[in-house]
Specification:
By secondary structure, this protein is of the alpha+beta class. Helices cover about 40% and strands about 15% of the residues.
């Protein structure tokens, strides 16, 4: 019995030490980064897609846009940067109510409407907006992500930026 407990504790310890490697989490600065990457990479790993790495520059860019959205109460994608295109997923919801995992999980749940094919013909509903967050999250060519949260008067806003950008017309997500 004691041996079983020791093995179990040792297994948990090894898993804890290797978790950053399994989720692509090199150079992380906070539990926020780990939580965001974990949800993203759980879905990518299930599909056999390489995990994302955290990119602090993308997170800073996401923070500027999240702050703008929270301050203005608007909800729109940032203008595209032609010199360095980035993918972008946005989420907004009741202030203080949703966990980070639930926020990113909302994008993962779009999988229920996803069908294989070339973008934008990836939705069983015929509406790309029903799967666009999901396809960006699992886009095979995307290697890095950086995200940020800001709080407005009534809502929390999550912005995730992706490099390389996904959702290119005529290409398959994976």
């Amino acid at each position: 019995m004691a041996g079983d407990r020791l093995f179990s504790k040792a297994s948990v310890f090894v898993l804890f030490l290797s978790a950053p490697l399994m989720i692509g989490a090199t150079g992380l600065n906070s539990i926020f980064d780990v939580r965001i990457l974990t949800v993203h990479n759980r879905e990518r790993t299930a599909l056999g897609i390489p995990p994302l790495r955290w990119n602090p520059a993308l997170a800073q860019s996401a923070q500027r846009w999240a702050d703008h959205l929270a301050a203005t109460g608007s909800f729109e994608h940032a203008p595209e940067l032609s010199s360095n295109p980035q993918g972008e997923n946005l989420w907004a919801g009741t202030k203080g109510y949703y966990s980070l995992e639930a926020r990113v999980g909302a994008w993962v749940k779009e999988k229920r409407y996803f069908k294989l094919g070339s973008f934008p013909d990836n939705s069983v509903t015929g509406k790309v907006e029903d799967v666009g967050h999901y396809t960006q999250l699992v886009w095979r060519e995307t290697q890095e992500v950086g995200c940020a949260v800001a709080t407005g008067t009534r809502e929390d806003v999550l912005v995730c930026r992706y490099s390389s950008a996904g959702n290119y017309i005529g290409e398959k997500p994976f």
